[in-house]
């Protein structure tokens, strides 16, 4: 897809209506199984953790339970660490990195912090390897009151009682080649605006909250992950995906203002991770491990700095 090639759905310069959304939806096909890839892993984890069904997605003939994994030794006197993955269903390592963290590392935090992990926020999109939900909405721009996205609304309900007790929130994402080949062109077509090509960064980076930046926290995450995979450099403009790089591998967004998942709590420490799975320098296993490593580094920093924020 280039800026000179119109998206195959819609009329250039005109936002989509219901007919265009329906046409887009008719072209989405199931490519993998949420039950086989995610629910089966969660079933194994029930022996060691509490599993909570916090909602259900219903899209025509498709129905998906939304599951969260919680510390079995939950204590009201401990802070909460929130981990979210699969807000964008196509970002595979976000889902599997969250599950890997639980399987391999969660036990080390028993009695120190309450863990709450929602590993696959958008299972419909996970199965179709897509960014949007079935209504052509981006859940990661929909975390706000009266959210139009079922996925976002369900997660907001889950964390509402805990919002002010969350110490650290790590939201696991990917930036992929398909962002430029498919998803950003689709977004421009849906909204009736010109598509302006961008550059996909080669490597891992994180997104801090510009309203409440925590540079030392972000630096600690980057330092841990660079032992696993490479960190994205800035482009020729000193930017990563159009935002100034404020430190190696770090950019900033106004998380809550944009309706992003990482902005849904009052956590003093929050970050969005971005792995690049299409790099010839990174395997799928490295990407999953990078995500799990980022979670550990984020929680470790937050626990070591309670009360200093």
3D architecture notes:
With 309 residues, this protein is α/β, with parallel strands linked by helices. The chain has a single domain (18-304), classed as Aminopeptidase (3-Layer(aba) Sandwich), CATH 3.40.630. The protein has helices at 18-26, 34-45, 92-104, 123-128, 150-159, 177-191, 215-225, 284-304, and strands at residues 50-59, 62-70, 80-85, 114-118, 166-174, 205-209, 239-240, 243-244, 250-253, 269-275. The protein is globular.
What's this entry about, in short?
This protein has helices at residues 18-26, 34-45, 92-104, 123-128, 150-159, 177-191, 215-225, 284-304; strands at 50-59, 62-70, 80-85, 114-118, 166-174, 205-209, 239-240, 243-244, 250-253, 269-275.
Supply the key terms.
309 residues, alpha/beta, Aminopeptidase, 8-stranded mixed beta sheet, two-stranded antiparallel ribbon, 19% strand, globular, hydrolase, zinc
Strand content: 15-25%
CATH superfamily descriptor: Zn peptidases
Helical proportion? 25-40%
Order of the strands making up the biggest sheet: 1-2-4-3-5-10-6-9
Provide the structure class. alpha/beta
Please work out how many helical segments DSSP would assign: 8
- Radius of gyration equals 19 Å
- CATH fold naming: Aminopeptidase
For the secondary structure, the number of strands is 10
Largest sheet: 8 strands, mixed
- Low confidence ranges: none
What is the string of SSEs from the N terminus onward?
A: HHEEEHEHHEHEHEEEEH
Quote the distance from N terminus to C terminus.
Answer: 45 Å
- CATH class descriptor name: Alpha Beta
> In the residues, how many domains can be counted?
1
How would you classify the quaternary structure? single chain
Family: Belongs to the peptidase M14 family.
Domain Peptidase M14: 30-309
Organism: Dyella halodurans
Pfam family, one: AstE_AspA_cat
